Amino acid sequence: GNSVTQMEGPVTLSEEAFLTINCTYTATGYPSLFWYVQYPGEGLQLLLKATKADDKGSNKGFEATYRKETTSFHLEKGSVQVSDSAVYFCALSAGANFGNEKLTFGTGTRLTIIP
Amino acid sequence: DAMVIQNPRYQVTQFGKPVTLSCSQTLNHNVMYWYQQKSSQAPKLLFHYYDKDFNNEADTPDNFQSRRPNTSFCFLDIRSPGLGDAAMYLCATSWGQKNTEAFFGQGTRLTVV
Fold it and tell me: Which chain A residue is nearest to residue B4, measuring alpha carbons?
């Protein structure tokens, strides 16, 4: 079956530090890959996505590249801010029958940025 | 501008007393999903609707039911809430294709007393 393995948290960084959150996946076929962010007490928001190999998704200074050869989709940001403190979920969608598409989530990584 | 709206944001219910959570969308998406998220865990899919077609996950307890009276609204009914059902419940919508994202509501935090 499909699965997503995410870097264990929590992660604590100082402001302006470089961020990497690792994500690897197992899927049949050719999945689409997503990073969602969840701020305290809120629902999930899409941060970025990539739908085919070598695609790079980017948003708000975050980037992730779809690497089929290593089945990875690591999230990176060059200089984090306090406002980036949240829980980050890696997810995949693996192309089931139309209308039955479902997201498979990783366990989430809690990120805390200290000033 | 809210596109997926969940009501209420916070719900307290008594052990064993039926409770209904609601979700509405302005996106006209075909698919509506209900997820359960317990503290520090990934969201767990309970079921979803593709239009009027209901799809239950194999491990969703019978205690959880859902209704979708029209495209815009979807309800989660918990027939006899137990203490273990306390969680955040997230509604999401999408077009149901693998390259399109899901849009989530803000969630309803359910407390069982």
Answer: A43
